[in-house]
Design goal:
The protein is mainly alpha-helical. The protein has seven helices and no strands. The longest helix has about 40 residues.
């Protein structure tokens, strides 16, 4: 009887120790970071998918604004070519490249929206108005997704640093701190995509 209790007791102690050391908590928090990042990417992709239709609609009314339209197309191409894997979320340089490409796209879109103000017929076009609404909604979703990602990163980074999790992490997991999705340096506010009537 005693020989049967010893393995059960050791298994119980091991389970309690693993639970108390934060192993599962850190894993769960890292998965939340990955899911949150997926939401950011999904919303950024939605924005990128709207851009070709937006450019074509503007081109129909403002064909001589080729330089600005080309800048938007090039910024979209660059932004969609910069990809991050979940491993890159701990790499400050990779995150900076990603943020920079997305910032260039936001800036190009802002310039495009400024020229739209010069074309009253374009501003009244139903297709353009629908795209404008979708773009504005998407920008809002991007902002919410970035905030949720940063909250997940904060929870994860704290979880791997607090004791006894830090000990478990250094001995068993070696999980790396994740980078926040910060605004581009010099950016004080988000680009405005809302038009005045």
């Amino acid at each position: 009887m005693r020989k049967k209790l010893i393995p059960i007791l050791l298994l119980s102690i091991s389970a309690i120790t693993l639970y108390a050391c934060g192993y599962n908590t850190m894993q769960r928090h890292e998965e939340t970071v990955f899911k949150s990042w997926g939401d950011v990417e999904s919303n950024l992709q939605r924005r990128a998918d709207l851009i070709p239709n937006l450019v074509e609609t503007v081109k129909g009314y403002a064909a001589h604004e080729k330089e600005t339209l080309q800048a938007v197309i090039e910024a979209r191409s660059k932004a969609t070519s910069v990809k991050l894997s979940t491993r890159d979320l701990s790499n400050a340089e990779a995150m900076q490249r990603f943020r920079s490409a997305q910032g260039e796209l936001s800036s190009a879109l802002s310039r495009l929206m400024v020229i739209v103000e010069r074309y009253p017929n374009l501003k009244a076009n139903q297709n353009f108005l629908a795209l404008q609404d979708q773009l504005e909604g998407t920008e809002n979703r991007i902002n919410v997704a970035r905030q949720r990602y940063n909250q997940a990163v904060e929870r994860f980074n704290y979880a791997i640093r607090k004791f006894p999790n830090s000990l478990t992490n250094s001995l068993l997991l070696n999980l790396e701190r994740k980078e926040y999705f910060k605004a581009e340096e010099g950016t004080k506010e988000a680009p405005q995509v809302k038009f005045s009537d």
